[in-house]
Write a structure and sequence with these properties.
Layout lengths: L6 H10 L5 E6 L12 E7 L5 E5 L13 E4 L5 H11 L10 H11 L3 H9 L1 H10 L5
Length: 138
Amino acid sequence: MNNLPSKTAVEARRARYVPGTRVELVSMNDPYTTLKPGDRGTVRHVDSIGTVHIAWDRGSTLGAAFGADEIKVLTVVPPKVVEQIKQVRLLPGVPNMLSVRELFEFAMGLGGFDELCDYLFMHTHEYSRFILTGESEG
């Protein structure tokens, strides 16, 4: 019985976990690891059997095995979006920064804030987290 993932599954994993992607550990099926759920790291690469090799912030380089361990991608607010948020909040007549719909309409009306508008439309939850906490990943 072969428990290895198909080539298609490995390629899908490579597309999701590209090098440089920030991830968070959800669970790991390794009784000897010191990693805990919530630990974060940066993807190094995905090998031919679907293991996601990660440089964990705590110093470990343990990979997340396909089918055994669970990680999730952290959404990072792009630097261009952060810059546009800073620009818009200083403009006269800016609406409440927590009102995503009003902010979206305001930025659309200004023009030149396409990245911010796209981000507001596609990542409402992440935007709200950033505005409330200042955290750009989560």
